[in-house]
Every structure is written in C-alpha cells, then in structure tokens.
Amino acid sequence: MCTPMISAEYLIPKAHCVERSSMSGKEKKAAALEEKLQLLRSATKSNAGNKTSILVDASKYIRELKDKVDEAAADSSSRSDTSTQVNVSSVDLDCRRRGFRINVSMERSRPGLLVSVLEALEELGLDVLDADVSCADHSAFRFQALGSSGQGETVDEQMVRQAVLQAISKCMDSDDDE
Predict the structure, then answer these.
(1) Hey, what domains does the chain have and what are their CATH numbers?
(2) H or E, element range at 41
(3) Which of 150, 96, 141, 94 has its CA nearest to residue 121?
(4) Is the Cβ–Cβ distance between 160 and 102 less than 8 Å?
(5) For this protein, what is any one GO molecular function term (predicted)?
(6) Greatest distance between any 2 Cα atoms in the chain
(7) pLDDT digits over 61-79, tens only?
(8) HSE value, Cβ hemisphere, 13 Å, CA-based, for 173
(9) What are the strands, taking DSSP E only, across 2-159?
(10) Starting from the edge strand earliest in sequence, which strands make up the sheet with 141-149, in order?
C-alpha cells in the first residue's frame, strides 16, 4: 500500500501514487519528474496544469524574487550611506605588566582620527612608546602601538578599549556634522 507523499504545500493523493518496484526505468523517471513539477508548482503557487506553463510561472516567480532582492539591496545600501556608522574592524588590546599593545583597524579613516585616539590614551595616563600608523583621508586606518602606564599601574583593558572606541565614535560623528 502506498501512503500519500507530503511536500512543502502540496499533498499528492493516493490515486497518483504507484508502487515504484513495479515501475520500469522510464516510468520511474517520469514519476520523479512529475513529482518535482508538482513541488515546483506548489512552491511558486502556480495554477498551471502543463509542464511548460509550470516552468514559465516558475521563471516569473524567480524573476520577481530577484527583483525583490535587488530592491532590498539597493534600499539597504542607500540606508547605510545616510546613516552614521562607526565601522571598527577591530580594537585588540593586550595588557602586560605595566604596559599594553593595541591594534586598531578600520575600513575608513577621517581627518583627526589619529589625534583623537592618541588624546584618549593620554587622558587615561598612558604613554605611547612606539606606534605604527597607516591612514589617509577616507581610506583604511591602521594603528598599532606599544605603551606603558605612566604611573606604573596596571592597565585596565576594558577601560582603554572603551576610551578608544568613544574617541573613534566622537571623531566620526563630528566629521559627519560638518
């Protein structure tokens, strides 16, 4: 006895169900093709009866989905262009005995960004002993530095990370206002 086959939104009735063991190779292929067409018909919500119409409806459905995706992508890119976002790729901080190593990477730079980061470190009482910087207006920004705590204290990793992120955010916001 053959049980009904259940698909995404379609129930194949028992009348269409044939024992596969008694079918020839051609009949099995035809039954598999028919089953796939019915799945395609249900997925695209097509009312077509013949194979060609089902495929045409599926093609239209795919085109509509593609248009929706393109529209959503265009909408998303226009929204991201108008919104103020601070896209910090990474701020890595390695605190050692009385010192630190920091790496800041961003996809875009702004004028004054390096100064803002250095001022934030200075406000925390941290001395930058060695720095490697790569930045230009509106292109990638890379900052790697080794430093120490001026008073010989240990460095609070979370506090430094937060101060650097705030300095970056403040610099990005002030540049957007101009």
Answers:
(1) 5-81 (no CATH), 88-177 (3.30.70.260)
(2) helix 25-43
(3) 150
(4) yes
(5) DNA-binding transcription factor activity
(6) 88
(7) 888 888 888 888 777 666 5
(8) 6
(9) 5-6, 11-12, 88-96, 99-106, 126-135, 141-149
(10) 88-96, 99-106, 141-149, 126-135
